[in-house]
Amino acid sequence: MDRELNLNRAETFSFINPWIRYFLFFFSFLFWVFSLLIIAIGVYAKVQKATDTVRDTFLIDPAIILIGVGVVMFFITFCGCIGALRENIRLLKTFSLSLTLVFLTQLAIAVLGFFYSDQTRDALGKFVKKAIVHYRDDLDLQNLMDYIQSKRHKITQNGETMPAKPTYNTT
Questions:
Q1: Judgement on whether residues 83 and 63 belong to the same structural domain of the protein
Q2: Which residues span the membrane (predicted)?
């Protein structure tokens, strides 16, 4: 009788709290589905354009960026989802390490962007100039640039905000 009771305890024993386990599984699964949606939108946008991306515009192509972000997000959330569901410690450690690396990378980019603000501004300026050169070549890029331009505001001398004028030829 005691042996059977000990076996049942061993079968129900878990290193992970069930509330945390299912909470992690739910949100990992939710973001996993979102990552699949992001990949699908990126692939759909790339197929609809039906143009080859040249090397110059490869990194500024919104469809390629969506696919890349979706694939990274898919990998990370897959590790969290399956790791929580199966209580696989290795996948949970991979999930934790991946989230930590993403956070530290974002933090490092923010700190470097702050300390090297002049170089960051120059690099962003080159990126925008390259995007402006290819403005009419890619409809997605054109829509992205229009959206960014519509959200950018200049602050006047008296503190009011007014929309910035486009820096590219709209005629």
A1: yes
A2: 20-44, 64-85, 97-116
